[in-house]
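User: quick one, sequence for these C-alpha cells?
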C-alpha cells in the first residue's frame, strides 16, 4: 500500500476510536509533539463531522419525502370517482319531438 494511504488508515484508526488505551495514550503524545499531525487529525475530524451532518440532512430529507407520500391528501381518487359517477348518471338526451 502507498505510504499516503497507510498514513490515512493509521489516522482513521485512531480518530474512529479503534485503538487500545495504550495506543490512544501514545497517539495523544504524538499529537502534542507533532503539530502537523495534530492539524491533519483536526482537519480529518472536521471532514468526518461534515460527512455526518450531510448524511443526517439527506436522511431527514428522504424521511420528509416519505412522510409527504404517505400522508398527503389523497383527493385524486375521489375526483376520479365523482367524474365517473357523473358520466354513469348522465342520461343520453333524446332528440326533441315535434
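Assistant:
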Amino acid at each position: 500500500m502507498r505510504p499516503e494511504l497507510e498514513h490515512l488508515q493509521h489516522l482513521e484508526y485512531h480518530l474512529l476510536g479503534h485503538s487500545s488505551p495504550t495506543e490512544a495514550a501514545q497517539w495523544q503524545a504524538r499529537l502534542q509533539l507533532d503539530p502537523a499531525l495534530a492539524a491533519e487529525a483536526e482537519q480529518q475530524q472536521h471532514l468526518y463531522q461534515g460527512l455526518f451532518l450531510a448524511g443526517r440532512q439527506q436522511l431527514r430529507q428522504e424521511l420528509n419525502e416519505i412522510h409527504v407520500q404517505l400522508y398527503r391528501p389523497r383527493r385524486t381518487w375521489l375526483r376520479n370517482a365523482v367524474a365517473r359517477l357523473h358520466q354513469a348518471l348522465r342520461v343520453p338526451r333524446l332528440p326533441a319531438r315535434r
